[in-house]
Amino acid sequence: MPELPEVETIASSLRRKAVGLRVEEVRLLWPKLLRGPAADLRRLAGRRVADVRRRGKMLLVSFEGDLHLLFHLKMTGQFHWTGRAAPIDKHTRLRIAFRDRGRELRFRDARKFGVLRLLDTPRPLESEALRSLGPEPLAAGAPEIARLLVRRKGRLKSLLLNQAFLAGIGNIYADEILFAAGLHPLRPAASLSEAEARRLAGAILAILAAAVAAGGSTVRDYRDADGRSGRFQNAHHVYARRGAPCRRCGAPIERRVIGGRSSFFCPECQK
Questions:
Q1: Which residue of 19, 61, 142, 156 pairs with 201 in a disulfide if CB–CB is 3.0 to 4.6 A?
Q2: Final residue of a domain: which of 102, 126, 150?
Q3: Which of 35, 228, 256, 261 is the catalytic position?
Q4: Does 3 qualify as catalytic in the annotation?
């Protein structure tokens, strides 16, 4: 599932390309993609794209007149920026055609887990789908994240995956963050010293910033809106490297299921 760095990469790309373009038509090819109250996507016709941004793991495309499309990519959701005459892939679920330049934005989802909502509000970040999310890590900063870590319950891996705690971190980056901080995924969050909390906060910011700069991680299906793969997977220290030698100490990377999710860690570097 695309996480903060992947969705941020997509949002940045689409923001450069789509903001200011006027919608010609919207075609929903898979009706079950659209969730929530009955919505008519034809209302978007004639409106210009005002902004494209990320919140957590979701992508928010805003249009004139306080209408917004909120996408959750789930496992295999992808955006394709293409010409309107390009062949349509069988997994394409949504097409947004623009009057300008004959271009089109397509949403592709092979496994059909993706979710789309139409929001009609001047304050989309306060909508039911978004208001429960925690702070954005890259906006919060290290001191605020360290403060949030103090006296939190639960294990570190589960806490990092909790979207109400911090928005946007998923399985890949939780594992890489904990390795960078030298902390075991089963470590109780409440046991962290102030120095360890600061170290973990710094690792969160460093790993996410590096992953954004590298265009995210392509482990399976992720591509940006131009079809390019991410590069941060080449810098992974632990994720999906079970049995491989730790790049720091040489010990075999281990895998354990925590809260129903695979967790990868170095048993020597993360005591």
A1: 142
A2: 126
A3: 261
A4: yes
Least Cα distance to 18 among 225, 230, 227 occurs for: 225
Which value, to the nearest 10 degrees, does the dihedral of the CA atoms of residues 140, 145, 146, 148 take?
120
Boundary of a domain, candidates 81, 100, 126: 126
Note whether 70 and 163 are same-domain residues: no
What pLDDT digit, counting tens, does each position of 190-202 carry?
Answer: 999 999 999 999 9
Catalytic residue among 3, 8, 104, 176: 3
Check 53, 57, 95, 157 and give the catalytic one.
57
pLDDT digits (tens, 9 = 90+) for 244-267: 999 999 999 999 999 899 999 999
Check whether residue 141 and residue 213 sit in a common domain.
Answer: yes
116, 166: one domain: no
Is the pTM higher than 0.85? The answer reads yes
Residue 131 lies in a domain: no
200-240: per-residue pLDDT in tens?
999 999 999 999 999 999 988 899 988 899 999 999 999 99
Question: Smallest Cα–Cα separation from 78: which of 230, 232, 248?
Answer: 230
Note if 2 is an active site residue: yes
Distance CA 69, CA 183 (A): 38
3-state SS assignment for residue 50 = strand
